[in-house]
Every structure is written in structure tokens, then in C-alpha cells.
């Protein structure tokens, strides 16, 4: 039995569960949480090997979904609206497979129920590992090491949110070793039995994580799927276009 995930519960009303993606934490979907908690109870979680949740050598969707199922049982949450981005979207889809009785609706942001074959995070892992090896003593030094490997400032800033001072050395909140070792599981996917929970797939218009070629996989596994495209935005659609993403979610869940 795994330890309970670190979580934050805010607001009152029908429960919305927010699940972050790879290298994130429970604050990642904070722009969505701030709006939704005005009229819902919002449960934000740190997935295993992220934030303040348990570190484990194992990291796959069966376990990630089981962790959340266990938390929902602990908090006695039923009929939840579950929203997940990227790896969190795959976790949410797997949760629908093992805990459909606790879910009312599902929102999947910019990811398909599909095994991606290309490695998309080589530079990120190189930067994270370099920080661990060089043991910088300040945040600015850690960010400078990251910059040697990661071109995009936005990506560096996002990763930097998980830096913390551990006995004078800057360290990562997430478990780099486990995430690297389980990367094939993170990008992979075991198809689930067809799910009848009403599901909204929100795609970033400029992103290639969710495309027309994934449509047959989506329809085979989610019979009640709808799609919504947010134009002129990439994979981080909730950060780039939070207003449009919230509008799509609210239209779907009311």
C-alpha cells in the first residue's frame, strides 16, 4: 500500500480533481484551481515522484491511478470531475479504467491514450542530471546549469519551480532517477477497456501530442469523447491560455 499523496483541498461544492504533468506539482494547474474553487471543491495532488509525495522506484499508470484512487477513497470523494494534463491526463484516463464509480466526467488536456515512441525530454533530463551532479549552492547557479542544456527559458522557469535548498545544496523535488528509469512507461500506454464516462479532450492547436492520427485510439477507448481545440497554443495550453481552457472546461461540466 502506498503512502497517501500530498494534496491540497480548497473551496466547496462538487469536487474537481486536478492532476499535473511530468516534472510538475500541485501548483501547476493553479490558474485553473483559483477559478474553479469559487464554486467547486478543488483537489490538487502531487503525483508520486513529484512535489512532496512519496518517492518510489516504480512509476507507471497503474500505480499513479491507484495512488489517486486511494486518496479519493480516503477523502470519501465520489462523482468527481477529473482534469489531467499530459502525464496527468494519462493518469486520469487510467483512473477512469479502475475507479469509474468515483468519476462523473473526465477532461484530458493535450495527450492521447497512445504510446508515444519518440524521446521528447532528452535535454531536460541532461539538465536535471547536471544540476544533481554539480550540486549548485544557489538557485541562480542551478538555473545557469540548466541553461547549458535547455534552450527555452519557459521550460527552465517551469523546472525551476521544483528546486529547493537541501542542506545548502539546490535539489529537485521530483525523483529524477525514477522518472528517467521509467520514461518508457511515462510515454507508453496500455489500452483500456472502452470507457463510457463523458470525456473532453482539449488540444493545443499547435501541439503534436494529440492529432488526427490518434482519433481511432481515442474513439476505441472513450465512447463518449468530445474534442475542443484551443487555437495558437502549444502543449502548455493551461498556462498559455487559461481563460480559454477554463471556458471549455466550464462549458463541458455544467
Automatic annotation (TrEMBL):
InterPro entries in UniProt: AB_hydrolase_1
The entry's keywords: Hydrolase
Pfam families: Abhydrolase_1
Superkingdom of origin organism: Bacteria
Record-annotated AB hydrolase-1 domain positions: 15-242
Keyword Hydrolase tagged: yes
Recorded GO MF terms: hydrolase activity
Keyword Transcription regulation among record annotations: no
PANTHER family: PROTEIN ABHD11
Protein name: Alpha/beta fold hydrolase
Lineage: Bacteria, Pseudomonadati, Pseudomonadota, Gammaproteobacteria, Vibrionales
